[in-house]
Amino acid sequence: MDDDRAAIIEVLNRYADACDARDWALFERVFTPDVTSDYGPGYTRADRAAIIASVQSHLGGCGPTQHLLGNYDVAVDGDRATSRCRLRAYHCGTGNEADLFYECFARYEDELARTAEGWRITHRRMRVDFELGTRAVLKPLPTS
């Protein structure tokens, strides 16, 4: 059970690392291909590719970010698990908007499955509790 808990926390942390490093391929080691998500009103997604595209549309053109996770609550039941954790995410602007920022305090509520490759998220729910700054810093990579 402790090994499963540690492996699940590693998957949750991997998500934060993928966001901050803009390592889109790393999301394949976070989510199952058929994952579903609910990041709030207007942000439900039906598979891993859609989630990655959504994250890219927010972080691809954003400045530096830091996603900090903590207060992990993990419950394992055989090859299925649930987890909850707290999130504090800071997003910097870039270019002419370098002085702008967006910060949120939120909760991730996840369902996970043990796969042949290890634990993966099958459903993610994000609930934002507090926001500060402007979401204007969240944007895709500019097209040239």
How would you summarize this macromolecular structure in one to three sentences?
The protein has about 140 residues and is of the alpha+beta class.
What can you see in these coordinates?
The protein has 144 residues and is an alpha+beta fold. The chain has a single domain (2-137), classed as Nuclear Transport Factor 2, Chain: A, CATH 3.10.450. 22% of the residues lie in helices and 47% in strands. It has 2 helices and 6 strands; from the N terminus they run H-E-E-H-E-E-E-E. It has helices at 2-21, 48-59; strands at 31-38, 44-45, 65-77, 80-92, 101-115, 118-133. It has a 6-stranded mixed beta sheet with strand order 2-1-6-5-4-3, covered by helices on one side. Strand 1 and strand 2 form a beta hairpin. The radius of gyration is 15 Å and the shape is globular. The model has no long low-confidence stretch (mean pLDDT 96).
Attribute tags:
single chain, about 140 residues, alpha+beta, Nuclear Transport Factor 2, Chain: A, 6-stranded mixed β-sheet, about 20% helix
Number of helices: 2
CATH topology: Nuclear Transport Factor 2, Chain: A
- What overall geometry do the principal axes of the alpha carbons give? globular
Rounded mean pLDDT score: 96
Report strand order across the widest sheet.
2-1-6-5-4-3
Order of helices and strands: HEEHEEEE
CATH architecture label:
Roll
Unreliable runs: none
> How does the helix and strand content classify structurally?
alpha+beta
Can you lay out the helices and strands and say which pair or pack?
Elements: H1 2-21, E1 31-38, E2 44-45, H2 48-59, E3 65-77, E4 80-92, E5 101-115, E6 118-133
Parallel strand pairs: 1-6
Antiparallel strand pairs: 1-2, 3-4, 4-5, 5-6
